[in-house]
Amino acid sequence: MVTLYWAGQYAAVFLGYYLLMFLWPSVVFRRYLCGKGKLYHFSFCITVQIVLINTAILGMGLLGVLNRWTVLLIMYGIPILSLLKGISREDILRPFDYIYRLSIGACGIRTFFGEARKALARGLRKRCKRLWGILEPHLIEYFILSVAVIYGMAYFSYASFRDYSYGFGDIYVHHAWIQGLMNGKIFSGGIYPEGMHCFVYCLHTLFGIRVYSILLFLNGIHISAFLISAYGLLREVFRSRYTPLFALALFLLLDLKSVNAVYAMSRLQFTIPQEFGLFSQFVCARYLVRYLKDGHDGKGSGFKGKLRQCIMDENLFLFMIALAASIVTHYYVTIMAFLLCASFAVVFFRKVFSRKKFLPLVVSALCGLFIAAAPIAAARASGIPFERSINWAMGVMNHTAPEEEETFNIELYHEIEESSVFEKVFQMGYCEVYHSERAGHIVLFTGGAALLWLLYRIGAWILKVIFSKRIDRNCFDSHLAIIIASILFMVVYASRAIELPQLIAGSRLCAVEQMLILTVMVMPVDMLFSGLGLFCQTVVMQCLAFLGVAGIYTAVLVAGVLHGSLYIELTRYNSSVMATQAIIKEIPKNSYTIVSTTDELYQITTDGYHEEWLTFLDNSKKEDYKLPTEYVFLFVEKRPLAYAQIHLFNGPAWLMSQNHIEIFAYIDMEKSCCPEITASQISEEMSGRALKKEENEWDTYKILANRTIVESKAYEWCQRFSKLYPYEWNIAYEDENFVCYYFKQEPNCPYNLAFGQENGGR
């Protein structure tokens, strides 16, 4: 039953995501998208929709009209009006004509439903025929891509079905900011990119899906946007349309070699802004390349002409919107997009700075910046301050942020302090992320790919000059751009070692860098497939692609280098999550209070009340203390878990191996491998110890000794109360790790919960 419940929640999030992210813009902008390619349609939906929702929600918030009803009116009203606008008068009247004929006896009930069935069948046949016409020419290719995306969704969703807690501390903060939107307040924590928060808020408001379920599952679904967007960029990079499939297969299968790499990949499974927006850098780079390759003559003079071209040129338009989408989701994504686009700009330098291309490109970039920055500027003008993460980002750049300190190997740096820049980048970059042996192979592959590009250019020049034969000498230039990008990302990762500002926290780069490195490694295959494509039919190439991907999967399994499980920061027992869910389902709204550590607060935020154990225990020492709800539930961990411990999983052999567990063996942090959980034990002795409180209650719970003391005191209080009121005292759930007590009371005359002076009573 538990698995079925979460499967239902996953299905609801998946369906809501599809309807909001793809169906909504496909209906509203169907005329514009008519005749556009599949990847363009996909890229348009995932970028335009995020920017539109962000702008609409923040705009309503600035005007003071943000609430559930205005969101429902706009988000449902626009597609309905769009559909009505596209329906002719005859189409509107036809159903009424059928009903009228039925009412006057002009046709029988069988005829009526028969005609309706035939009309429906004709429509379905027409749509199926159109869909088959799209799929049939590249059926095997689309099948491989679909399997890769589904495999990726399974891999990145796996943890959410094993442990039902959020799994990453930052998600609680983002949940609170989404709650702010639900209360009609934008930037409730200060000015911060709200693209993801606005999307989740809309998903919740339109379809009634719980925010907790959305945040638990969304990125395991949204990873499809990351994978397909990367595939779209690689289609522009590679000459053969089948080579991107090999790069995706390696990305989804190959194991990792460092804590930072596993950390970055693990972040992809969490619904947090940077990972939610990572896809936009690939869209941005793809349509920049398409714009530069396009033979458009750049018609239009002056600023107005260039502005018109930004809107009319479909590639430049998506570049602009993708840039805006990156800004409204996370500033780090914008920096990554800049690094990626700059790599292509270096290779296509002459086209970028040509008279016809440069000004429209600059105007589009400025327009994208303006679209994203306008709500932020308005919010700042209204007096809303920036969120404190801005100071954290400056700490990263200055090498003073705690996250950056933890990922920097200071001992190794001192060993190579006098080395060359190349040696520092190699040791503190490639070796840090991939370990020495694999790092050496990567550098050799990178150099070999660059050499192959150079040899091709020389060969093309020789054929032209000596043999007077022309071939496309620029067809592999995008290879060089990705090579430059992979090196540039690694330089940014190791920037502290070479005494440069750290534009992005190094550990945040590893997932995208992994994609770039593996793209470089399949470049020789692209050249091979490009040559074979000149002589082989399409069906043969598709079969070779299928065999190639199957061969990669088989080789990875046989060699024992299949990726291991991702990890979560374990914060709750599954039983506490399910007990909370049962309370939400069975107890009337706002008629109960849950007393626990902080985490349950976010699950019940719109349904009930929450009291911190620290607050509860302090108040219970006073003369009078009451919780005026009909039901009071008390959550006690009998085995207090080490909060935010590194928790890995044992998964099916076809999906993951145990390689990553070895990586964390030498990390000086609490860790566990499912089904084991690192935990302590409550006791009477621990209940008598003094508690060392931190400024933030949440930080107090994170220290295992403190958590054990809190849970021991909580258990001791529950035992005392049960002796005073044995007939009112109940156990809702209990296992070896966790127990949920509860009692029912008269809300107008609640129990006095203060036991400080043995004065319990009504």
Describe this structure as you would to a colleague.
By secondary structure, the protein is mainly alpha-helical. The protein folds into 3 domains: 2-77 and 135-145 and 163-231 and 261-387, no CATH class; 406-521, no CATH class; 569-744, no CATH class. The protein is 65% helix and 5% strand. Helix 1 (2-28) packs across helix 4 (68-86) and helix 23 (421-434) crosses helix 24 (436-465). The longest helix is centred in the middle third of the chain and has 30 residues, at 436-465.
Short account of what is shown:
The chain is mainly alpha-helical. Helices cover 65% and strands 5% of the residues. The chain is globular and about 100 Å long.
